[in-house]
Amino acid sequence: MTKLVIHKEDGTSYLADPVRARPWWRWLKRGLALLVLAPFALLLLYKLPFVHPVSTLMIKDLVTLKGYERQWVPLEDIAPVLVNSVMMSEDGQFCSHNGIDWNQLKLVLSSDGEPSRGASTIPMQTVKNLFLWNGRSYVRKALEFPLAQGASLILSKRRMMEIYLNIVEWGDGIYGVEAAAQHYFKRPASKLTARQAAYLAVTLPNPILRDASKPSRGMVRISRIVENRARQSGAYVGCVQ
């Protein structure tokens, strides 16, 4: 190991600790590498069915002492019609893509030049909720892409959907489908009707402003489309059956 000699102003000198003399940027590089790898390590942990992940918004609510409502439920305790409705509303190609719906992304980019909610898949929304922040930006989207593809490699489609439905925000301080079903309809997620499932699904683009129990005229119109698509979803939802 090379010794670094430090000369003092009084003419004396000493051998510096090579670890302490290491440039600060090396530590910065190591820190950044850890930040990059940490989500993938957590995703490996999240494969385990008894692990119940929380979102960055849930952590923020805890840190700010606001608190939140969330009760984890396994996918088999969620009404299948809710799963189908969310998939048809949020990501109709969920079962066939690798985390990114490239065809939809190309359509969105060609229409307005910026990747928006219209190109956001369930894996992208899941990793955003788990590791990133809200708000539209190129930086966040750039981070979402590799994380969504990594999550799709690590997690099964069924586990991905289970995590998403248990961490997604459905209102101010309301996270996960069980808390949403109890809050809006006073019933468990396993007992949701097709219409209630559709109302919950169409609130997801803006859960703070949309109320599933008091749907606007526009929400009613869209929910009927989602309800019909969920009824006819068939093979599109086979990966979570």
Question: What is the strand and helix layout of this fold?
Answer:
Elements (H helix, E strand, L loop, with lengths): L3 E4 L5 E4 L7 H23 L9 H8 L16 H11 L11 H11 L9 H10 L6 H17 L2 H11 L1 E3 L2 E2 L1 H9 L8 H10 L13 H15 L10
Antiparallel strand pairs: 1-2, 3-4
Helix pairs in contact: 1-6, 3-9, 3-10, 5-6, 5-7, 9-10
Subcellular location: Cell inner membrane
Organism: Pseudochrobactrum asaccharolyticum
Pfam family, one: Transgly
Report the CATH C-level class of the largest domain: Mainly Alpha
Q: In order across it, which strands form the biggest sheet?
A: 1-2
| Average pLDDT, all residues | 86
CATH architecture of the largest domain: Orthogonal Bundle
Strand fraction equals: 5-15%
Count of distinct strands: 4
Overall form: globular
Name the CATH homologous superfamily of the largest domain.
Biosynthetic peptidoglycan transglycosylase-like
Termini separation (Å)? Answer: 59 Å
Into which percent range does the helicity of residues fall?
A: 40-55%
Q: What value does the Rg take, in angstroms?
A: 23 Å
Number of helices: 10
CATH fold annotation of the largest domain: Penicillin binding protein transpeptidase fold
Succession of helices and strands: EEHHHHHHHEEHHH
Poorly predicted runs of 5 or more residues:
3-7
Report the biggest beta sheet as strand number plus sense, adding barrel if it closes: 2 strands, antiparallel
Number of domains: 2
Structural classification: mainly alpha
Structure characterization notes:
- GO terms for molecular function: pentosyltransferase activity; peptidoglycan glycosyltransferase activity.
- Pfam families: Transgly.
- Residues 66-217 form the Glycosyl transferase family domain.
- It is found in: Cell inner membrane.
- 52% of the residues lie in helices and 5% in strands.
- Helix 1 (24-46) packs across helix 6, helix 3 packs parallel to helix 9 (194-203) and helix 9 packs across helix 10.
- The chain has 2 domains: 1-46, no CATH class; 55-240, Penicillin binding protein transpeptidase fold (Orthogonal Bundle), CATH 1.10.3810.10.
- A hairpin with a 5-residue loop joins strand 1 and strand 2.
- The protein has a two-stranded antiparallel ribbon. Strands 3-4 form a two-stranded antiparallel sheet.
- With 241 residues, it is mainly alpha-helical.
- It is globular and about 60 Å long.
- The protein starts with a strand and ends in a 10-residue tail after the last helix.
